[in-house]
Write a structure and sequence with these properties.
disordered N terminus; 13 helices; 25% strand; eight-stranded parallel barrel; alpha/beta; 27% helix
């Protein structure tokens, strides 16, 4: 923020009726309320002030849990230096103020490493948050807090279209795949099968023989522990398929608390340059899914771990994209893929805040699993219960083509065969989804026992069910085969 917030004579007033609040902000700042249903932003060259509203009336969360859970990132004292952590009363309302700073990120233009946030408690279930970040130390942030007023909401808050599809920048073969996969009729199926992902095809070929269906898309995961998996991807391509290459910027089984900051400090520049050059040398089309499910606290690239700041993620995405561009990589389709559930489900962690921009995304991925009931608090959900609300949102927000980048149904808690039968009967309600990738594997509990069994070939009856339904998709599958 500016070194001191201007006096009241230099402040402007802002009112947002749907969320029932008014505040004052430095009048030299501009206002961006294009996404006011998620946040309103005030900004100048040095400072951003964001205002959020959370209503927990239909959840198990309350104001105390919101404040405690949402600020856990600050326990990472090696990356976040807390300078203020105080609770108080302001105009009769409980207010919690946290201030912190982090190291400057050399790869971020005009980085803003100084932060302050104030959670203003309306009642046990409703909280407003003012979050500030600046390129210089913040002072007198309480002037904005003291100016904050609440009143009964009026009207509704809505989110409209947030993207516009841009022309594809790709070589001829990649453009051909894009057109056949996303601009033609029919749903094309892919799969994650662990052995096939590492080019051991026997198990997948046996399954496909039983299904009388060939999957044209295969997921291949990797971390920063290894470089570009050229050998595996060449074998996938030579087998007539295309890879959904999922790079997760982390190290498996290691401490990743600093990983996003390290990337944006340039510590992985050599790795990323070599990675981009290797993709270009590979030459064939890839669906490149970078850091999927970023809105979940189970991944280190979520804002939950990084100053409650989703722009750390978008800066990382655009930085890697720019490295690819400088290396003239033109065989990649960029797939941006949140989870259907944001965790934490707070406004500052909203899915759309992770969107890196139209110039950086070619395909929007959807992911929602029927997780089953192995863990307490989880419910058995049909495909339609999962995807009807998600599809409606994405159809409203995005112009880019859509794919289900990974999904599945557990077998614990319900009838998986019936779930699959119903799914196939409901798929035609989602015409903008052009590809679907079944995640045929398992999640394991802390004792390494199966917790969520998503395997497509879990039983002969399940295989026969897929076989019966996939026959009608065979013409679309052949359309993307080489």
């Amino acid at each position: 923020m500016i070194n001191r917030i201007p006096s009241s004579g230099d402040m402007a007033s802002y009112t947002y009726l749907p969320y029932g609040y008014q505040l004052q902000y430095p009048k030299q700042m501009k206002t961006d309320d294009s996404m006011a249903a998620i946040r309103t932003r005030f900004y100048d060259d040095h400072t951003l002030i964001d205002v959020y509203y959370d209503d927990f009336n239909h959840t198990v969360t309350d104001a105390a849990a919101y404040i405690g859970y949402g600020n856990r990132f600050a326990k990472n004292g090696s990356d976040h230096r807390v300078t203020k952590d105080k609770s108080m009363k302001v105009a009769g309302s409980k207010v919690h103020v946290l201030k912190w700073e982090r190291d400057k990120l050399e790869r971020v233009e005009n980085d803003k490493p100084y932060y302050a946030s104030a959670e203003i408690v309306k009642n046990d279930r409703e909280v407003y948050t003012i979050q500030i970040k600046s390129d210089r130390p913040i002072h007198n942030e309480m002037d904005i807090v003291h100016s904050f007023r609440m009143f009964p909401p009026q009207g509704s808050a809505n989110i409209g279209k947030v993207t516009t599809r841009k022309p594809l920048r790709a070589n001829k073969e990649t453009a051909y795949l894009y057109n056949r996969l996303f601009l033609s009729d029919g749903l094309k199926w892919g799969i994650y099968e662990p052995d096939a992902a590492e080019s051991k095809m026997n198990r997948l070929l046996d399954l496909e023989h039983k299904l009388d269906y060939t999957f044209g898309l295969l997921i291949r995961y990797q971390s920063l522990d290894t470089g570009f998996p050229a050998e595996d991807l060449n074998k996938i391509y030579e087998n007539g398929r295309f890879a959904v290459l999922t790079l997760q910027t982390m190290h498996y089984n290691k401490d990743n608390s600093s990983i996003m900051y390290d990337i944006l400090k340039g510590k992985y520049d050599e790795y990323l340059m070599k990675y981009a050059q290797d993709i270009k040398a590979f030459g064939h089309p890839l669906l490149f899914r970078l850091d999927n499910e970023m809105n979940g606290d189970w991944v280190p690239y979520s804002s939950y771990h990084n100053s409650k700041d989703t722009e750390i993620y978008t800066e990382m995405w655009t930085y890697i994209h720019d490295i690819f561009s400088r290396n003239e990589v033109d065989n990649v389709l960029w797939v941006w893929n949140p989870n259907n559930l944001s965790k934490p489900g707070f406004a500052w962690n909203h899915t759309l805040l992770y969107y890196p921009g139209d110039d950086y995304v070619d395909v929007v991925g959807l992911t929602a699993y029927n997780t089953g009931t192995f863990y307490e608090g989880e419910d058995w959900s049909t495909f339609h219960e999962l995807y009807a609300p998600l599809y409606a949102q994405y159809d409203e927000w995005f112009d880019q083509p859509m794919m289900i980048a990974e999904f599945g149904s557990s077998s614990i808690g319900g009838d998986k065969v019936e779930w699959v039968n119903r799914m196939f009967g409901e798929l035609d309600q989602y015409p903008k989804i052009k590809a679907a990738v079944w995640w045929s594997h398992m999640d394991f509990d802390p004792n390494n026992q199966p917790a969520r069994i998503y395997k497509l070939d879990e039983s002969p009856e399940l295989v026969e069910t897929f076989h019966k339904h996939l026959q009608s998709y065979k013409p679309y599958a052949s359309a993307i085969r080489r």
